[in-house]
Amino acid sequence: MLFNQNFQQHLNECFTRFFDEPVLINHADAVPGGDISQTCILHTNKGKYFIKINAALFGLDFFEKEAKGLVTLANAGALKVPRPLFDGKFHQQIYLVMEYLEAGQMVPDFWEVFGRSMATLHQHTRPMFGLDFDNYIGKLHQANADKQTWHEFYANQRIMPLIYKAEKNKMLDSANVALAEQFCARLSSLIPEENPALLHGDLWKGNFVVHETGHAAIFDPSAYYGHREMDLAITRLFGGYDEKFYQAYEEAFPLQPGHHDRLDIFQLYHLIAHLLLFGGHYRDQVVAILKKYD
Question: Do 121 and 217 reside in the same domain of the chain?
């Protein structure tokens, strides 16, 4: 952990400016489990806060964009989101300080409330698919240029940029690229159009927690306005969600017919991202989906 006395003093000064009163960090506890960043709980005279630290090898604006995504989701008022306090750079590392969420025990209707809350989030809309800033999915750049239709956005802002990157990295070949181009050409007939929905963008089971109220809090967003089946598809890709979540969502904001059959279409983006980040068996999954729609 790159957390020394000089960095601690720097953070003390940032806290003091933020709160406009003296704030001191008493100690920091490392939190294991982060794939991309180092994380700590900061114990201060004003309470506990959470910090993420990264060497910024893939983007100096990584935490700035994460903070903007958290604010975007929080402003929707649908779910608890940790409040970002400040982000910055210290020597060769960037960091983000945010509210610390105390863990709790699930209330009996946890999954039902979570499902309805996600439906509420997805009812926040705007005229175009995209967002007014780009961000990241994991360590990968995620472009959010506005598009009028979902199939255009999904093809040009999601699938093909990662496919070309995978080809460049020799993870996919030219035949796979051709399959992806054919897949994208068919999207308008495969996916029913909907209004843009505010998405978390990376809603796997590791990006929610039961906070002290007993309800869900979401974090680590890759937010944008997209097709709402994107969020739901990734919840099923890596497991962790109870069926009560989907039942409550469906009651609150019914999905269009055939959504179960479209899961792999929406999961493809995340599988290509995982291929780029981790390699391995993800290639077979990506190619299998592309061949299915050949």
Answer: yes
Co-location of 122 and 40 in the same domain: no
Q: Side chain identity at 81, as an amino acid letter?
A: V
Name which of 202, 224, 219 is nearest 274 in CA terms.
202
What pLDDT, in 10s, does the model give residues 251-286? Answer: 999 999 999 999 999 999 999 999 999 998 999 999
Q: Are strands 197-199 and 208-210 parallel, antiparallel or unpaired?
A: unpaired
| pTM higher than 0.70 | yes
Average pLDDT over residues 214-234: 98
Q: Which residues form the catalytic set?
A: 202
Regarding whether 229 and 197 lie in a shared domain, the answer is: yes
In what side-by-side order are the strands of the sheet with 38-44? 25-31, 38-44, 47-54, 93-99, 84-90
Q: Are 131 and 144 in contact (CB under 8 A)?
A: yes
In 126-252, beta strands by DSSP E: 135-137, 140-142, 197-199, 208-210, 216-218, 224-226
| Residue span of the structural domain in which 60 resides | 5-99
What is the 8-class DSSP label of residue 172? S
What is the count of structural domains for the chain?
A: 2
Partnered with residue 148 across adjacent β-strands are none
Verify that 53 and 131 share a domain, yes or no.
Answer: no
172 & 129 share domain: yes
